[in-house]
Design goal:
Helix content is about 5%, strand content about 60%. The chain has 2 helices and 18 strands.
């Protein structure tokens, strides 16, 4: 017995493989000055479809989307209909301090993933996405009596990526109740490069100083997910979802350099190496996190979702054979709420516009970052659309294409200009595609011969 793939599926596989082959998740696309702390800015987004609902995804499960935040949702994949997702975002930052203002922008891919239904109850997913990003270039100038102008330069780039493999299984499916459990096994890896410099631009004799470090990370952690759904009536249902990540230690290796140098024609020339520590082995502790939320559905086409997430970053620790200065982080917590509306079920719609999905959301939280004992808060408001790709050529009277383009925008603020801090006014533009075979083009169907 043979299995067959449609031309659409073969082309889709080729597209995804090419994307993975040629797009290595950028290690230099972070642009936030706040990414200087810890292991960088934590990536809390995983899909434009959920980002534009304020990120309130823990209680949702969709047959045509990969919900990485809750692996129990993989059990909702439709049998014989795989999902391929490629997502990206553009971040535009307006940076303000008490004395200056500037703008930055960066575009990056945020996820490449596949979701495979194994049977009616079991689904699996495999993907690659950034876990953290680091990217900053900060210059601070001051004037010191009898010394002159002094420049302090802080630079960093890199990040930690995540490859995950997960599964979701529906344990209970009877009457109007279902209960699913799931897990993600996450492999974290990546390099973060950082440097601090002190320069004396008005003194040709003084030696500048440099402290730099490059840290490679690799290790595993795991997510456990739960999803409970109940249909109360034909027009009302609800769900409750939860995710627990135990955190743990990941391996790290660090190269450190302390030196003095001079600048000659914009070229840095090392004059004296004070210390150089190569392959300084250690571990980085990632704290555990917990997410709880749910959703209510009205008339099968209007969803209201909510979510709360907490993570105690005071437990963050970098433990190396040769100790170095550590950042002090705080506990983080985030609350988000989202809304989405689809006029008509895609299997029942007769008009294209009836299948367009509308999304909106809001999020607010305390980040793990703190300066001078001041917690850095952030909030964002979002709106997005899910746009079906095309009408089925073989069924002109019925729209059965399941693939969708997901786009949206989020505007918000992070930080403050008080106490010498920086305020980031951000605009995030989300874009992605969820590719699925049409309903009549199914994977792994046994061919029958007469």
């Amino acid at each position: 017995m043979k299995y067959f793939f449609t031309t659409l599926v073969r082309n889709t596989i080729l597209l995804v493989v090419m994307s993975i082959s040629f797009q290595v998740f950028s290690q230099e696309t972070g642009i936030s000055p706040y990414s200087r702390l810890g292991i960088g800015t934590i990536n809390r987004s995983h899909s434009p479809a959920y980002n534009t609902m304020g990120g309130a995804s823990i209680g949702l499960s969709d047959f045509n989307l990969i919900n990485v935040s809750n692996p129990a949702s993989y059990s909702s994949f439709m049998k014989h209909i795989p999902i391929f997702e490629v997502d990206g975002s553009t971040e535009i930052l307006n940076l303000r301090s008490a004395t200056s203002e500037g703008s930055l922008a960066a575009t990056t891919f945020t996820k490449i993933a596949i979701g495979l239904p194994i049977n009616e109850r079991l689904g699996v997913s495999l993907g690659l996405m950034p876990y953290t990003t680091t990217g900053y270039d900060i210059i601070s100038n001051s004037t010191i009596t009898n010394v002159g102008e002094v420049s302090y330069l802080f630079q960093g780039k890199g990040g930690v990526n995540k490859v995950y493999l997960g599964g979701g299984y529906e344990l209970i499916d009877r009457d109007s109740i279902s209960l699913s459990l799931g897990f993600n096994a996450n492999f974290l890896f990546g390099r973060i490069e950082e440097s601090r410099r002190v320069e004396f631009p008005e003194d040709n004799v003084a030696l500048n100083s440099l402290i730099s470090q490059s840290t490679n990370h690799n290790g595993f952690n795991f997510d456990l997910g739960l999803l409970y759904k109940q249909r109360v009536s034909k027009s009302f249902s609800y769900s409750i979802g939860a995710n627990f990540n135990a955190g743990g230690n990941i391996n790290a290796s660090r190269d450190q350099l302390s030196a003095t140098y001079t600048n000659f024609n914009s070229v840095q020339i090392i004059r004296d190496t004070i210390t150089f520590n190569e392959d300084n082995e250690g571990t980085v502790r990632i704290p555990m996190s917990f997410t709880l939320g749910g959703s209510v559905t009205f008339n099968k086409n209007l969803d209201l979702a909510f979510q709360y997430q907490a993570q105690d970053w005071t437990d963050f620790n970098e433990d190396f054979t040769i100790p170095s200065t550590q950042d002090s982080l705080a506990s983080s917590n985030y609350f988000s709420v989202g809304l989405r509306y689809t006029p008509v079920n895609p299997f029942e719609a007769t008009k294209y516009y009836q299948t367009i999905q509308y999304r909106a959301g809001f999020r607010y939280g305390n980040s793990p970052l703190q300066f001078n004992n001041i917690a850095i808060q952030e909030f964002g408001t979002s709106f997005g659309l899910g746009i079906p790709i095309r009408k089925s050529a073989s069924n002109k009277g019925q729209f059965k294409s399941l693939s969708m383009i997901n786009i949206g925008v989020e505007v918000g603020k992070r930080g403050t200009t008080e106490d010498g801090l920086i305020q980031e006014n951000f605009t995030n533009i989300y874009f992605g595609v969820s590719i699925m075979p049409q309903a009549q083009n199914r994977w792994f169907v046994k061919r029958k011969f007469n």
